Amino acid sequence: MIEWAVVATLLILALALVLTTARLFIGPSLADRVVALELIALIAVGIMLAYAIQVDRPAFMDVALVLALTAFMAAVGFARLLERGGSSDE
Amino acid sequence: MKAMDSLILRTAARFLLPLLLLFSLFVLLRGHDEPGGGFIAGLVAAVGFSLYVFAFNAGDTRELMWMDPRVMLGWGLLLATLSGLPAILEGKAFFTALWWPVEVPLIGSVTLSTPLVFDIGVYLVVIGSVMAIVLALAEVEE
Amino acid sequence: MSPEVALPVIIPFIFGSLSVILYKSNTAQRWLGVIGTGALLVAAMVLLHNTYTHPDGVLIIALGDWPAPFGIVLVSDILGAVMTLMAALIGFAVAIYSLPSISSDHEAFGYYPLMHLLLAGVCGAFLTGDIFNLYVWVEVLLVASFALLILGGERAQMEGAIKYVTLNLLSSIMLLTAVGLTYGMTGTLNMADLVVKLAEVENQGLVTVVSMLYLVAFSIKAAAFPLFFWLPASYHTPPVAISALFAGLLTKVGVYMLYRFFSLLFTQDMGYTHEILLWIGGFTMITGVLGAARYYEIRRILSFHIVSQIGYMFMALALFSPLALAGGIYFIVHNIVTKSNLFLIGGVIYFLRGSHELKQVGGLWRERPWLGLMFLASALSLAGMPPLSGFIGKYMLVRAGVEAESWGIVAVALGVGLLTLYSMVKIWAEAFWKAQPQEYAERAARFERAISERSLAIMCLPIAVLAILAVLLGVGMQPVYEVLIAAAEQMRDPQIYVDAVLGGNQ
Amino acid sequence: MSDFLTVFFLLTGSGLILIGAIGAVRMPDLILRMHATTKAGALGVGLMTVATAVYFLDIGVTVRALSILAFVVLTAPIAAHVIGRAAYFTGAPLWERTLKDELGQNLDRRGHYLRSGLEEQDRLPNRDRPAE
Amino acid sequence: MTLFIWNILLAFVWVALSGNFTGSGFLAGFIFGYLVLAFVSRMSGDMTGYTRKIPQVIGFTLFYLWELIRSNMRVAYEVLTPTHYMRPGVIGLPLMTQSDAAVTLLANLISMTPGTLSIDVSNDNRMLYIHAMHIDDEDALRADLKDLERRVIELLS
Amino acid sequence: MEPLMAFVVGGLFAASIYMMLRRSLVKLVIGLILLSNAANLLIFTVSGMQRGLPPLIAPGDTLPAGGWADPLPQALVLTAIVIGFGVLAFAVVLIHRAYVVVKEDDLEKMRSTDT
Amino acid sequence: MLLAVLSGFILCTLAPWLTRSFGDRAGWLLSLLPAALFIYFLTWIPTIAQGEAVIIHYPWIPGLDINMSFLVDGLSLLFALLISGIGTFIIIYAGGYLHGHKDLPRFYAIMFAFMASMLGLVLSDNIIALFVFWELTSVTSYLLIGFLHEDKDNRWFALQGLLVTVVGGLALLAGLLMLAVAAGGEYTLSGILAAEDIHAYPFYTGMVLAILLGTFTKSAQVPFHFWLPNAMAAPTPVSAFLHSATMVKAGVFLMARLNPSVGGTDLWFYALGIFGALTMLTGSVMALRSTGLKAILAYTTVMALGTLTMLIGIGTEQAIIAAMTFLLAHALYKAALFMLAGALDHETGTKDVTKMGGLRQVMPITFLAACLAALSLAGLPPLFGFIGKELMFEATLGAGGALAAFTSLLALLSAIMIVAMAAVFALRPFTGRRKETPKTPHEAPLSMLIGPVTLATLGLVFGLFGFLPAAALVGPAVAAVYGDPITVELYLWHGINAPLMMSIAAVIAGLVLFAKWDTVLAGFKRLTFIDRFGMERGYEHAMDGLVAVAEWQTRLLQNGSMGNYLTTIVLTIVGLAGWTLLVHTDTPIPLGLFDVNLYEAVVAGLVVVGAVFASVTTSRLGAVATLGIIGFSIALIYVLFSAPDLGTTQIMVETLTVILLVLVLFRLPGFIDYSAPATRIKDAVVAVALGGLMTLLILAVNDVPVAEPISDQLVHWSEPEGHGRNIVNVILVDFRALDTLGEIFVIGLAAIGVYAMIRFRAEDKAQ
Ligand code: NA
Ligand code: NA
Questions:
Q1: Per-domain residue ranges for chain A?
Q2: Which ligand is nearest to the CA of G701?
Q3: Residue C221 belongs to what H/E stretch?
């Protein structure tokens, strides 16, 4: 049961990934793209967790841990850029 | 212009920095057995400091870091290089790993090793380098 | 196990690290610069001596005591040891030349650590016996050169650096790609092991394909036709001490790697690969020397000549006879000495006249005959005039070409020699013979006043040594020849290398 | 039972993330999109960490799972805050059906300053107001 | 004292991360925690009384988890239904506390709860601006938020 | 997976070269970043890809349980990633400085050193 | 012998110091060396005159067959004596001529180096050593011709001489190396002369042409003759030395030297005969239309060199005898004439013969010496030059085949003109009405007269006592050149024969020509086509063409366009590797089974889609954000295929890259795609070509089975030997620690570089 549930989870997340990527491409503002990027990071965390279950290797959770801890830095960086006068509509 | 001047971010940075540093030490020390190691640990720490740069400013971060990143970088390089040399005293090739199990009171048996020293060197280099770059960029901007 | 093989990388690493730590003290950095490169020079001499006198002619150190092919080995065969010695020599010369010629700003922003680490990278590339490790060394020297190139932040430096960085990165990526493909084909990274494993690959055509990637990657580094663009775009932009260091070492690393790979690893289809090398060599000679003929700026002329001279080195590798290979190595050695020295002399001219433009300088033969003599020794050597070092190199190559009946390349090599002479004489006639042009006399006088005789003397010290070396290498060739022909024999017999590395020689 | 819980948390978690993704595509303005991604994403990942903890039933894994959860919950709102704030400062458009905007009224974009609107009600000295 | 508590906390984190549930593991964690804190001690940590009310923390966590689930269901509904029923708007929430930690915690918690997202705090720390998906019933919303603020202040007092 | 990855890597190479040819400083550096990633993926691909067999040894064991993915290319790629990061950090700042100094983003207008 | 050759080089280093110390008398002092050498070489005469050839061997670079071995025989000894003997007088003469010149110390230094090189050239047995000296004469003569280097013309002429002779020198090197191969790996002249089957060498023609290119350029044969008159830019002592005994004779020397072994073929015969004769005629004609003293002499040198070449080409016994005799005679009178010309120029301040007149009274010794030397030049009895000319006519008449008539006719024509010019030289300045000259003339000092007088007298002595040179000098030389011992007897009187008739005709016609010289001169000056004859224009066009080609190719290649550079490099990669793939591998590219899960495909697809989006988007920050998604996807690929450390690292690096990008990007402008649509398509094709190549490579390599990668051993060692359970980390810090060490140095270096880049200028401005 877990096997197919994991596969289903991975497929769901893959779909989420595609949708979010679409938002990233569409934009229109930089902030929109960054929001999408943040969600992509979370989806990646999810994929890693599901994959850890699929292959029965908790080691992959460590990657998820690092990603969870640092992914928001990109958002902080972009936000700083915007506040310093970068245009948001490129 | 000052940094982002966000109360929320500042408070979060104060809270996250020690957490990230501790986590980086953790990643550093167990890297030999689990995913991790000096490089990843160094990057985690550098991300922590970078967050601090974003939330506060370069000057505060420089003060916080206590050591000039370039000096830290130098020490890291030296430490990593020197870690390969003790082996020669034992008549072995450079960079032959040496392992010394040490009994530390209260903590118990701890294994010190030249690969660990090497990894610490890597750790310092990564922090020093990344922060030298980030601080220099941030300072120019400010 | 021979620890001395690792010293040429460990010494500059330690001194480089110390200079980083002591970045606030320019004095300490200067001392570290001279002592460090001096120690490197001694270590390199010892290494060559021990390598040459060893019964196998090969020394190895398996780092971490992990035997080949599993760990990384550093291997010093005669070729590697000779190259290391040359790197150390130029490093030391430039370190001394730098003392009066490099600004305190340059020092404060890492000139010396960068120099140490550049040398470490170069020596590492010469000594490693592992293809991925080679990539790492190449990156070390490359990034060091990036940093040196931009030190000063002039506009020209930035523009030159963009091309330099981009094209060299492309080359590194090709190298990395080729290393990856090699591992994919063989499951090994050790060069000696690769000699064995590459021969076992069923699809030998694929080996040749991968060899082409190496060929391109190294040829970019070596600044060969038609991949040299980065060099003339950038080499004339930093201070001359840096240009001299680059001129002596960087392209030679590319050539060295070609020598290593196309003698040790890729000899499965020499009729094809080495024919390509020959063509590249010919075109490189011609395009480089023509480029030089066009310019009236000393450093640009010299930069294009680097390209041109690389062609000879290709020619030697392509011909592949013992004489040709020995000649090729000799050509590298000679070129390192003379080309670096010409850059250093160009620097002195700049300090005396305030310009690198030939149309703006003059009168030096009248005023500084010693400088003129040192220039003549180096320039005529570069042009292949006997009995200087360049002639011996040209002689060996042309003779090898005649013996191989490769008339085309012989004609090109000789013709390019003439044009090289033309360029060198152009510099001589303009900078030394011609009187100082009046319209630039005021600036020249200002510059000449600004530089003390003591500083000039320190700068001329390494120049004199290198000039004498250019003469000695020609006149006192016999002992050198014996070393080089031994190196060439080693190159032609990969089994020596393989046995020494995989057998773990004593 | 643990298998069932694992499956449950996996599917609900990933489902929530998918909802967040759909929201990211469908919502009409930036801040509304952030409503979707921040909450659904974080909770979705949180549920999935629970799934791993349940699946492995190992103290080490559980700690790691909780750490991930903690990190996500800690950082997601901060990310949302900095982006939202930055977007506001740079004048990101709000959905046309937005009813009121008290922040926009108190925002001084050029001075990069956000008033509380309470300044006139009392005479307390302002802490951070830049000197004029 | 605050630092000491921080240190103990970090030691626990260490033990948890390393999975070494022994005295030596804790000591190691304490030492590393101490080092980290000694290193960053220049920053003023005002997380006073963080661990004193453990039952309160647990209670609060449960409350908050419930809020979280509720919020997500509403958002899910909004995302999945074809028409947008939202009445969004940005409102200012006057703050009772000006403590950095409390404000931050409150802002973050609000961000994670139903239909609300903290955008920013005014420069004088007295007003929290919140984007809400539904401000049809603004008073009820403000009451909910005040309740949350009261709980946070209680927790951190 | 390797055949698919072959196309992915090829696509990355192509995209990076196309970007580098765009004459814009920013695109150039992004192209370089992609190029570096492409090479790393190439190494990873040609050394054989395995699912779910991280080269980690459980406590008490001496070998990874159930086989292992080749750890050596992983170490190589890791080194290459790090080196690539260093180099690209340099390149990023270089284009920044170049723009500040030259005040020009179009690479075709940066020819002063060649002519 | 080694000392004898090298002593010049040693003295070269001492000369400047000696000159400064001894001032005016330095010339006399320094002349002691060549004088001593002359005497030393004289002592060899008894040995050599008996037909012996002595080889003296000193190893130098034996590994490369370059040795200091010397071959002393009649030919080399003749040259050695001329060099040292005339050299002695030149050194003395220079002390007077360049009296007080500030560069005199340097002059002597170069002069001695030149002299030593010349000695080495003629004495070397080893052909490579010979070549070394050959090139050294080119270089030193360059320095001498350009001695007065502040003058632009002098620099130009010096360069011209250098380039022309070096072109030949390079060809000569190839020719000599071919010769060595042809002689079976023999690098000594003695060995080559002894070798049997050089004519059988398959590349004989090429070899001869290469060698002749060397000798013709050096000896100023048509069409390379133009550089020699221009070399008059040198101070007169140099010209005297260059033209009489050294440098230009080197080519003749080498042809003579190689004649026995390389010569004897039609190619050799016709090439030397025809070009020599043409050179002879050209030299005479050019002399006739010159008015400068030195120019007249220079063109007569061209004539003489042509004569010598022609004679060597004819190659008969008489021809060789004539050649050696003529050579000796020419050396004597030409050195004398040049030195006299220098004396006139030095005293009057002009070089133009038409501006001098009536100097007989004030410069009687000069006049006398000039008469003697000019008579020898004109080939009148009883001077040695007469013997030479008689022998020459005899040889041309005796030349085989069609050459006999051709060479004889040209020789006669040339002789007529030379008689006229000799008369011009000897009579015009000294006789007639006194003309005003820039300086008030009086007799030149002793140092400037001792040489010409002695040499001119020697011409008379040798003419009267022909047996002296015949036995001691000419005979052994002829033997060496001819290859067989020959007894040579030299007499003024050979009876009334064709050569004598020709001589008489030449003298009469020549005197008529002299009488009408002013009209002839005016007429000849109009014949400007002669200026176009030969390669001087060719040389100039070549130089211009060189610069033009250099410009063109450099503009083409090094055009500053990064796009072109990249395109070229990428196409080179694709060309070389792709072509090889196409031609050298016959295995079909295996696509295999796509064993892919859908979510893996999505992740992998996002990498490509992201990359494509990034490359076409016009949003700069959008591209950066897209980098993020590419990075995360790659991290996922690493994770999904068992590389957690890689995934982690990728994520961290990606995060930091984005941080860096946002730190720097806000200053940069947005994207503008500057290129035209056609360019974009071209770029896309280039890019896809490389991508396709990489795809094919991966597919091909993936199909290669690997039995046992070295990593298997590392995995087994990791825990027991490496004490670590994360194998990747054990590799990084232990098995391959050196890689990691290098890697952190890269990071450190990048940081140093970045720091310098950002702060260097910033702090500059702060100061
Ligand atoms: Na494979
Ligand atoms: Na394979």
A1: 2-83
A2: 2
A3: helix C204-222
